[in-house]
Amino acid sequence: MIPAWHYNGQTATRYEVYAVAQEDGLYLDLGDGRSDVAPWGDLFWIDKRDGASVFGRKGIDGWRVGIPLPMTDLLARRLPPQSRYGGLVDKFGIWPAVAGFTALSAAVVLVLWKAPDVVAPLVPMSWEQKMGDAMVGDLGGRICDGAEGQKALDALVRRIDPKASELRVRIVNVDMVNAAALPGGQILIFRGLLQEAKNPDELAGVLGHEIGHVRNRDVMQALLRQMGLSLLLGGVGGDVGGALNSAISASYSRAAESRADGYAINLMRTANVSPLPTAGFFDRLAEGERKLGKGAVAMSYMSSHPLSDERRKVFLASARKGATYAPAVTPQQWRAIVDACANDPDVKEGDLF
Amino acid sequence: MGVGNQDQTAFEFRGDWKEFFPIAASNLLLTLVTLGVYRFWATTRERRYFWSQTRFIDDTLEWTGTGKELFLGFLMAIVALIVPVIGLQFLIQALILQGQTALAGALGVGFYFIILFLVGFATFRALRYRLSRTHWHGIRGGSEDPGFRYGLSYIWKTLVGALVLGLLIPWSMTSLWADRWNQMSFGPHRFESAPEWGGLMKRFLLLYLVPVAAVILGIVTAVSSGGGPGGLGAVVGLLVIAFYVVLPLLALGYYAAFFREVVGTLSLTTINFQFTARTKEWFLLFLGNAGLYVLALIAALIPISALGLFSGLADLQPGQDPFAQNPGLIAGMVLALIIPMSLVGPFIRYRNWRFFIRNLEATGVIDLDLLTQSQTKVGSHGEGLFDALDMGAM
Question: How high is the ipTM of this complex?
Answer without folding.
Answer: 0.81
